[in-house]
Write the structure tokens for this entry.
Amino acid sequence: MILCRVLGPVEVSVDGAPAPPELLWRKHLALLIYLARSPKRARTREHLTGLLWPDKDESAARHSLNEALRLLRRVMGEAALDSNAGQVRLDAGAVRLDSDDLDRLIEGHNWADASAMVAGEFLEGFSVAGCEGIEEWLAAERRWWVGRSMVALLGASDAALRTGRASEAYSAAERAAALDSHSDAAVQAMMRALAVQGDALAALACAERFAALLARDLNGTASADTRQLAERIRGARGARLGGAEPALPASRLRRAPLTGRTQELGRMLALWDQCRQHGATAIILDGESGIGKTRLIEEFVTRVRLGGGSVALVRAVPGDGEEPESGILGLARGGLLEAPGLAAAPGPALAAFAAVLPEWADRFRHL
């Protein structure tokens, strides 16, 4: 079997050994990979001669194609290539492209392995002089595989972020941005990863660089989603659990990696997904002191706020048992006042809160 690595600089092996030099001649290699990427791995002889030998007359072009097919048969075996009835067809098992493997991994949501396969654009640096049709095909393939590579890298970034591996999420997103520097999705993934790590300034700087790049290269602007994400990060900058101000400047804040809580974070994010579809959700996080509850809730709250959600946080302490409606009041103090749409709640309910909470009084006392 011939294995062709086409995601990045081309590499070819035959049954695990280096390919013979004549197979690597540009038109021979272009013919092989073009057939492997063609529908049903087949093309007519006339199509192939016009594509690869456009400067030759019909007889010379047919001769060049026959010589190229003879070489492929010698390398792959007679049964691997059928050229009867005016068509040239590759056997399904004759050639394997790593791009096909990438597609299978993406379809199986195997993000880690899929992202590891991305090594550059399709047939990076490869061209066939004098063959305009091949060059047009290469351009189209490169656009397509950049898109598929972006799916793999951004999928890997999101999967890493959902399991608390923000540094890995940033690395995958950065690789996606290197493939497509004008991608809003890539810069958003970078911003989320930085924000989850606690580096709001770096996330905002990333957004500013992206805006400048779009203005310079395309005379355009970032998408509404990218601008909105920047505003959410800017609004949440410096916020800590319980409302305490950070002891360090925001530019020096970096959260420790979340370890040992992948399963819990995944369950909480699944509840957040349900919340976005069906409405408010309550989560009770219980456990012994010192096992990482605060770090887990920080990670979760940051993700929710970046997604446009509102979070009200309350700590339960023994003294709350002696205060009537302490849980409800704790939630009110813990973030409900900042929830969008709060003013649409029933007036008497808001006035009841304002009667006992000074921070609500100015807005809702007279409802």
About this structure: The beta strands are 2-5, 11-14, 17-18, 42-44, 81-82, 87-90, 95-97. Residues 132-162 form the longest helix (31 residues).
